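Before we proceed, please read the two lines closing this message. Report back on whether the C-alpha cells fit the sequence:
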Amino acid sequence: MFNDIGPLELVTIIVLAVLVFGPDKLPKVIQDVMRTIRKIREFSESAKHDIRAELGPEFKDFEFEDLNPKTFLRKQLDNDELGLKEIRNGFDLKKEMAEVTDAVHGRDGASASPSSSSPSSSSPSGGRVDMTKKPETPGDDERPPFDADAT
C-alpha cells in the first residue's frame, strides 16, 4: 500500500502526527484510522463479490484490475486472439513514409503507372514541377510594398 513512501517520509509523517494529535490522543486516532480502513476494505470486497455474482458464470475469471487500460491491452496482446501481431508486423511505417515523400517530391514510386511517367512534350521535366528550386521572379532585389493593414 505504501510502496512509494521512503523511510524519511515515514518518520516525517510520524513526527507530524505526534505534534498535531499529541502523544495522549495518537493511539486512539490510529485505532480509528485502522478501523475505517478495515471497513472500507470489507465494503469493497463485498461490492466486488456482489458484482461477480450478478455478472454470472460467464465472467468467473473477471478481474477488476483488467479495467485498467494498460493491463487490458497487455493481456489482449499476450492472447493475440484478434491477430494484432500480424497487423502490427504487416505495417511498415518507414515504407509508408517513403512512399508519401516520393509522392510529394514527384518522384516515380514502385506503384506508378507507365502512362503517368511518360514525359510531356510541353515541359522538359515530364510535366513535373521541381519543388527544390526557387520560383524565378523578376526583380528579386526589390522588396514588395509594405501593407500596414496586413499586419
Summary: The chain has four helices and no strands. Confidence is low (pLDDT under 50) at residues 110-123. The CA atoms of residues 43 and 116 lie 71 Å apart. Helices lie at 7-55, 69-79, 84-90, 93-105.
